[in-house]
Amino acid sequence: MTRTVMVIDDSLTVRMDLAEAFRDAGFAVLLCESATDARRELDREKPDVIVLDVVLPDADGVTLLEELRRRPEVGSTPVILLSSEAEVKDRIRGLSGGADAYVGKPYDPGYVIARATELLRRSAAATDTPAILLIGDVEPYRGALTEKLQATGYRVLGTSSAKDGLRRAADLRPAAILVDGKVPDMDGTTVVRRIRLDPGLNATPCLLLDTSEGAQSEILALDAGADAYVRKHEGIDVILARLSAIMRAAEDSRDQGGAASLMGPKRVLVVDDSPTFLEEVASQLRGDGYDVIRATSGEDALELLAVEQVDAIVLDILMPGLSGIETCRRIKNSSALRHIPLILLTALDEPEAVVDGMNAGADDYVVKSADYDIIRARLRAQLRRKQFEDENRRMRETVLRKEAEAHAAREKAETRAALLAQLELKNRDLERLNHELQTFAYSVSHDLRQPLRSMDGFSQVLLEEYGAQLDERGRHYLERVRAGAQRMGELIDGLLVLSRVTRKPLTRSVVPLDALAHRVLERLRESDRERTVEVTIAEPMEDVGDPQLIESIFENLLGNAWKFSAGREPARIEVGLTYEGAVPVYYVRDNGAGFKMEYADKLFVPFQRLHSEREFSGTGIGLATTQRIVHRHGGRIWAESRPGQGATFFFTLSSNAEGPA
Fold this sequence. Notes:
The protein is α/β, with parallel strands linked by helices. The chain has 4 domains: about 1-125, 3-Layer(aba) Sandwich (Rossmann fold); about 130-255, Rossmann fold; about 390-500, Signal transduction histidine kinase, dimerisation/phosphotransfer (DHp) domain (Helix Hairpins), CATH 1.10.287.130; about 505-650, Heat Shock Protein 90 (2-Layer Sandwich). The protein has 19 helices and 26 strands. About 30% of the residues are buried.
């Protein structure tokens, strides 16, 4: 796909020069000589990248840039500012105004194209809205910070807990993390250290915000791995500026996507109070393809480094105001800047000056002379060294990350193996318990039922043959013995049914539920011909399940409806179908005795009954058996009722239905 660049510059020479270079690189080019032309062209077409001169005949370039940032169609379009203004404040003003890059005139067309290509690649990679994570109260700036960060296109996430913040950081991988020095469950320095120990977060920009006035707190925070340290009293503008600076540095590092090329565009900051020497050095380095940024004092250099990332620094030792040695020391004491190669320039060929400079953290030094080849060679050597260090660091980080991932995978595998071993052990225990249950059921069937039959049988013989010799109380006691034996037999039979339902293999097929309901009700009519019951059965009703077990569901539910509607005139029973979404829900409804809903949780517990034996006979096993059958089919069962107004039992044969909790 052909990319389009818009060049806005009042110089015909610059427009033609850049147009030729961009076209040779495969770009489509739009040329504008004024802000008015640019606005008109932007109404017709949206470019992919914009090169904008700072000084235009009808507008200030930075003001136009701010206007472009407010236009939705080009608000996020990469913009390179082009300017012949050498003042550091002009460069800072442009970058602070929203420029993605700043190139000074005279420029190298190849460098401008390289920067445009880099910005387009970075823009294409930004496919999601980046997030800023605030850990701690971050007061009194939380509200204002959130508002300003959201206005610049960030999602802002916050948590007052350090543990929750670390968890959310691991899940969300934010673009940056701002940590309050005082978090309720962990101090801010420890939070930063934990972030740096996480392989997935150790490259995330991290700013620590604190109230401490002492230098020791800042040292501890930076040693723990914070990229920047800001005291709260410095205000929200400083916080945002520092956050923006560390995020740009991290973004540059990420955008390299691996080892940076020595042939790629490099930015070199040259600091010297001599305009003549500064211009000569800049001219020599531009000839090697470098983008040269000029500063005339240590103060300007530090101010510029706060807003723009550079690849190397060439710094004069002897300067008015902040000396080169002190400037070097401050740069090397900054965790965000100390990795930048720094070469000291000295007009004094004295060992003491060299020693002082190297002790301040300089990577190399060069004695000033008319031979600029030495400076160029030393600069190439430092950039090459930095290249190798970056490669080694990335390799170490990759190895450490892979080791951490391998360790985590081993731990996960070991945990899984332990869980599988525990599961296997529990399965064996379950098999043993099931076997014991089957053995117990057999004992109940054969060992316990035989004595009960004997008790019932001999009690009957005693009543028939010797009943005349017993008084009324004796016969009453004997009849109670018989009734107890028969009741115990019914309970044992219910337990055996419950056990068989649990152990019986499911045989699934299409089941006509309406036909099953008709068959069960016909048997109930045959057993109680004197009753008249109005019956309604919805047709057709079909589902997939075990025909024998589903018939047991209807035997229990319809049997209860038949029993509890006794005495009602007229008695009514309805078997119907409704839907919860796409899931069929079957129900059996009667107009019988009903029950209080606060006792509904006892319905499906074995031997739990809501009515006395004198009111309605039963064992309390039927509904427990029904629930187990429904659960084996992956469904649910629940009931609704009011005393004296009947009951409705709902059930599904699918795990997709949602009944009441």
